Amino acid sequence: MSEQSRIWIDAETKITDAPEDHHEELRLWLRLFSVTRLIENDVRSKLQSQFDVTFPRFDILSQLYRVPDGLILGELSQRLMVSPGNITSVIKRLMEDGLIVRTQNPDDRRENIVQMTAEGRAKFAEMAEANEAWIRDLTKDLTPADIRSLQALLQKLKTSVRRALG
Amino acid sequence: MSEQSRIWIDAETKITDAPEDHHEELRLWLRLFSVTRLIENDVRSKLQSQFDVTFPRFDILSQLYRVPDGLILGELSQRLMVSPGNITSVIKRLMEDGLIVRTQNPDDRRENIVQMTAEGRAKFAEMAEANEAWIRDLTKDLTPADIRSLQALLQKLKTSVRRALG
DNA sequence: TTGTTTTAGTTTAGGTGTCAAGTAATCTAG
DNA sequence: CTAGATTACTTGACACCTAAACTAAAACAA
């Protein structure tokens, strides 16, 4: 097998090509997963090389950027869909970098609010702009109508998943 | 904020609701990412609790299942879109579990072919069936037409991404 | 009030992920 | 034939990630 042809093979390429509808949902999931990973890998490597920031840190910053009053750690964990135990350590490193601050809520000392520093906001603004340009570039073969349709269908899928999860 | 309302907030919910088309691509990516993570988290936790297998191991097994002759490590790495260094350690553990075997290619001793054992095939068949049922359940609010449209649009997106990546 | 339960976050153990540097085998140009 | 590339894979350092067990604070209930 030539090197050139191998590049285009991935997780969803090789499944049985049965015309019956029985496996279409699985095929859909495999494609969803693979295209997401493809984009995520590209974004991650660009964030790393151009801004020396990891994808998870960027993810946290983008949440906090839109909420100047900050978020409780648990809220952050739910929005990012990652475990609470994970947030703890990533937050610590972002604090060490001076990009966010953390304050205990005096009215409920269990809660800790994190928010961005001015430095964090400035750095994130730069990254976000680049990120948006990357995404526009990656999606440039889609028409506005494609994007609207995809958006709507993904919303419908998400609703379906959430309903199934109870 | 009530607990009930918080559950439904996540990465793509809170972005600015500007009606201009300028941020639609980014919004699309955020939704794609969040719905993928939602499904992946559910599948991972079910694989763990019901079969004591991790998502990455399942991912490797599902590739090997369809290729009885096995795959070279590098091919596996490309298909799964993960780094070669990663494959090494996951493969080692799958071997220790007796689910796969590894053979050096005598014609090119740099290459190592991995393939499933009978035990691996049997265990995977069970998991794959459960997995397909989970996915059907998660997607059950989508019509066959929805699924076909999504499939086609994701294919178009993937082509766009691949073209952009060169 | 006081004992129980719930909630917010941390810690630990272990698996997964990248990148970069390293090794061994093969290829290739001269 | 042989020195320098290239290819396949491994290793090590470090970052993420989850689940489960833990601590501390607050809420609740008798």
TrEMBL record, chains A, B:
An annotated Gene Ontology molecular function: DNA-binding transcription factor activity
Gene3D superfamilies: Winged helix-like DNA-binding domain superfamily/Winged helix DNA-binding domain
SUPFAM superfamilies: Winged helix' DNA-binding domain
Every HTH marR-type domain range: 25-159
Pfam family, one: MarR_2
Keyword vocabulary terms for this entry: DNA-binding
InterPro entries: HTH_MarR-typ (IPR000835), MarR/SlyA-like (IPR039422), WH-like_DNA-bd_sf (IPR036388), WH_DNA-bd_sf (IPR036390)
Presence of keyword DNA-binding: yes
Domain of life: Bacteria
PROSITE patterns, per database record: HTH_MARR_2 (PS50995)
GO biological process: response to stress
Protein name from the UniProt record: Transcriptional regulator
